[in-house]
Structures are given as C-alpha cells and as structure tokens.
Specification:
Structural class: alpha/beta
Strand content: 5-15%
Helix content: 25-40%
Number of strands: 15
Bound molecules: pyridoxal-5'-phosphate
Order of helices and strands: HHEHEHEHEHEEEEEHEEHHEEEHHHEH
Distance between the termini: 44 Å
Radius of gyration: 22 Å
Length: about 425
C-alpha cells in the first residue's frame, strides 16, 4: 500500500550539523504496516452488517490465547482498557499499594489510579531499563498488593524473579505486554507469566487494529472478572441472577463495569495483522541487528542490552548516548537528527515526573526535584533517544538512519 502520509520535504531546512541533509523527505518515526488483505478483511465485516460481538472477536481471542499460550484472552477496545481491566481482575483496589516501573508509556500508571490504588515506583536495572527485582523487594510493604510491570522497548523484564517475589508475598502480577508481543523469556511467551497481561493494538504497536487491545490470563476466576468488568457488569447466567423469575429476557447489572468491548471491524483488522506477526517480528529483528552492527563499536553510544535468555520483540530501538564522549546534550542531537531527515523519539519521561503525579500529592510520587524515587531511571532517561524501527522501512531507510546517526554523533564527539 502506498505511503499515505509521507512527511514534508526537509531539503529547504539546513542541516544543523552542516552539508546536505541525509534525507530529502522526513523518514517517519513509525508507520503501521497495512496491506490489501487488511483492507479486504475490514471491508468484509462492513459488508456483513455484523459490527459487534460476532465471530471475528471470538476468533481473535482464540488465536491470541493460542499464540501467547494461555487458556483465556479477552479482546477490548484499547490498550488502556486492557490495562484497566487487567488491574481490576487481578484484584487491585482502593488504598492498596502497587509497585510499578517508572520507564513506561505515560498512561501506563493510570490503571491502578482508576482503581484508587497507590503507586510506588521501583527503580529500573542499569542495562535492561526494566523494573529491577531488587528494587521491588526494597519497596515492599504490608500494603503491597501487586506488581505492575512492562517490558521496556520490547525487551522482556525479569519475569521469573518477579513471579518468585509475587509468590513469596502473595501478590498479583500485571504486565503491560504491548511492546513485547511475540517476545519470550526462556522459551515461554510474554503475556503468559502474569495474573493478567494487557496488550494494545494502537497504530504504533507491533500489530494494529487502529485502536484495540487484549487481556490474557491462565486463571479462570480472573477471566470471569474480566468479562464482567468489560461488559458493563452484566450477568446473563440464569443460575447467578438475583431475580431469575423476571423472565427469559432478563439480565442483571451486578458490578460497576465498563463498555470495553471492541468492534468486529477492529477484530478483523487485528486478526489480519496477527497472521503477519512472524514476518513483522522477523523484519524488526533484522533492522535491530543492522543498527547493532553499525553502532556496537562506537564510544559515543551504547546499543540496547540483549540477554540470551530473552527473545526481544524490538518494538523500539533505544540508544543510550554517552555524555562523557559528546559535547552536546540529547536536545541538540535530537534536533540535528530531525534536520537530517530522520524523525526520532524519546522513551520515556519517568512516569511520576508527569505533573499529574505531583499534583496527586501522594508522597510516593510527589517528589519533583527532591529525593527522586528512581534516580537511575531519571539519570538514564536524559541519555535515551529512539530511532525509527518498523517493518515498512526499506534497506535504504535503514542506511539513512545509520548515516544520519553517525554524521550527527561524530560531529558532536569530543
Ligand atoms: C506500551 C504501551 N502500552 C499501552 C498503551 C495504551 O494503549 P492504547 O493507546 O491502545 O490505549 C500504549 C499506547 O501507545 C503503549 O505504547
């Protein structure tokens, strides 16, 4: 399918570093990978007239559960809904403490807050940038009820150690597994370790449904709560009705639930994308390997950490700049790369530094400017820069990114 929203030409903008910019047109930071088959699947649903609660949603749930290796998968309207439902079904509730990672998508920490739980941020590991099991242990209290983890850039977090801590202390584990769709830890697929795992099908995720998400669990009880929560709290099972005598049409609202169900249109697109997941992951891994080869010897940056026990999904390619070897900060490098025609990103501002968390006034998160709860995350954040990485990138695009990074960093080297 033709690129539908190529960014404007940049050749009229002078390169900050000097000389001709590496690219004439801006290489987008991310683009979904859609093709004619995706269109056909969506069109078929629209023509069928069945837009909700049909076969596509059911089929997507079955295929997704099989892919992750769990008994249950529940499709939802967004990744945020998936996280909210996963936290609810895992039993997180008012006043309880939830230990969470600071280097994650900004909305990641909202789900426990929707449930009026208290957030406690545990610092990340120096290399993998995932929540550190040692830091989780350091932050445990009598009030801790759950660990909510994510997988930085698609690199699985230390799921076995986290699971062991959870079992020892009777805690639930929730994963935001969005970035690690298709990743594995010691041969086991990410999304199958936690009490409940959430996935987003946002356009920047590995597969997209435009909007949409999924929750996976291996636990029957957790699945029952998920279904109730995402379907307006409605109960139809006659054996469970309070007033079954009302009539055969009768159903009851027995919980304050939400309308979090996806449409058949979303499910059809997600199903079509899911079929291409192996090829998407293969291309992502190829691109990451090309970047790694190009940058691994440079003293100006550190390439992403890899662990032989973990198969990475490479949702993002995040470089750590080496400030001692550079005479410019991340801001200059970011702007210079954009001027070379390469759109880059920054992932992530530590979640608790978003003003909301300060304004909430919780002593665990209201630490702006003093005694940061996660000093390692704050220091490392200032070094991070994310390069474009998505299956639609051509070999020439990859080469342009490598050329631009080498050009800019060499210019700014000490
Ligand atoms: C890692 C991660 N998790 C969750 C979400 C939220 O998903 P959604 O936008 O589908 O609500 C996003 C969205 O960008 C994300 O990047």
């Amino acid at each position: 399918m033709a690129a539908h929203h190529r960014k404007p030409l940049v050749s009229d903008r002078p390169a900050i570093v000097g000389g001709k910019p590496v690219r004439e047109s801006l290489l987008p930071f991310n683009e979904p990978c859609l093709d004619a088959r995706d269109l056909k699947q969506v069109e078929a649903v629209l023509r069928s007239g069945r837009l909700a609660a049909g076969d596509k949603v059911r089929e997507l749930e079955e295929r997704f559960a099989a892919l992750v290796g769990v008994r249950y998968a529940m499709a939802v309207a967004s990744g945020t809904a998936a996280l909210h439902a996963a936290c609810y079904a895992a039993g997180i509730s008012r006043g309880e403490e939830v230990i969470s990672t600071p280097l994650a998508f900004s909305g990641f920490a909202n789900a426990p807050l929707y449930l009026s739980a208290r957030l406690v941020f545990a610092d990340v590991g120096e290399y993998d940038l995932n929540i550190s099991p040692v830091e989780i242990e350091r932050n445990l209290t009598e009030g801790t009820c759950a660990i909510v983890a994510s997988h930085f850039a698609g690199h699985p977090c230390d799921l076995e150690s986290i699971g062991a801590i959870a079992r020892r202390h009777g805690l639930a584990v929730v994963e935001d597994a969005t970035s690690a769709l298709g990743a594995s830890y010691r041969g086991k697929t990410v999304g199958s370790f936690a009490t409940a795992a959430a996935f987003s099908f946002h356009p920047e995720a590995t597969i997209t449904a435009g909007a949409g998400g999924m929750v996976t669990t291996d636990d029957e009880d957790t699945y029952r709560w998920l279904k109730l929560f995402c379907n307006q709290g409605i109960v139809r099972d006659r054996a469970k009705l309070v007033n079954a005598k009302e009539g055969p049409w009768h159903y009851e609202v027995q919980e304050l639930g939400y309308d979090y169900r996806p449409t058949e249109i979303q499910a059809a697109l997600a199903l079509s994308q899911l079929e291409k997941l192996p090829s998407f992951l293969k291309r992502r891994r190829e691109i990451a390997a090309r970047y790694n080869d190009a940058f691994c010897q440079s003293p100006l940056m550190e390439i992403p950490y890899e662990d032989p026990d973990k198969e990475d999904a490479w949702n993002l390619y995040v470089l750590k700049l080496n400030p001692e070897s550079l005479r410019a900060d991340r801001m200059h490098i970011f702007l210079a790369l954009q001027a070379e025609g390469v759109e880059v990103g920054v992932h992530y501002l530590p979640v608790y530094l978003h003003p909301l968390h300060g304004w909430l006034g919780d002593p665990n998160v209201c630490t702006l400017g003093q005694d940061p709860p996660c000093p390692r995350a704050e220091t490392i954040y200032r070094r991070l820069i994310t390069l474009p990485l998505y299956p639609r990138m051509s070999d020439a695009d990859i080469l342009d990114v490598i050329t631009a990074v080498n050009k800019v960093l060499t210019f700014y080297s000490r």
